[in-house]
């Protein structure tokens, strides 16, 4: 489906050294959560419209992506991280209408 083409970060937070991003694909009308610099057991979760959500925990290394959820526009979704140690949960705001200038990664180039 080539959902990776044109992807951008619609919202972001940094908590306890973990980078949390709401990634958005206008090509596929989908969003997902990405965490980097986390630890094994930390969980990335994306919440979309109609109470749909998807989550995935880090099982090795320091980053992971949640599965995608349908999101017709970035403001329909938000990303969350659940930190295994202490159970702390932090979520981004709902996505904005344009890419953030300082994304951890920039995959807009095909």
- Strand tally is 9
**Helix proportion range:** under 10%
Run of helices and strands: EEEEEEEEE
Residue fraction in strands: 35-45%
Shape category: globular
Characterize the largest beta sheet: strand count, sense, and whether it forms a barrel. Answer: 5 strands, antiparallel
The separation of the N and C termini measures 13 Å
Number of helices: 0
Radius of gyration: 13 Å
Low confidence ranges: none
By secondary-structure content and strand pairing, the structural class works out as mainly beta
**Whole-number mean pLDDT:** 90
Task: Explain this structure.
- By secondary structure, the protein is an all-beta fold.
- Helix content is 0%, strand content 41%.
- The chain contains no helices and 9 strands.
- A hairpin with a 5-residue loop joins strand 4 and strand 5.
- The protein is globular, with a radius of gyration of 13 Å.
Structural descriptors:
single chain; globular; mainly beta; 110 residues
Short description:
This protein is an all-beta fold and 110 residues long.
Reconstruct the topology from this structure:
Blueprint: E1 8-15, E2 18-25, E3 30-36, E4 43-47, E5 53-57, E6 64-65, E7 69-70, E8 78-82, E9 89-91
Antiparallel strand pairs: 1-2, 2-3, 3-6, 3-7, 4-5, 4-8, 8-9
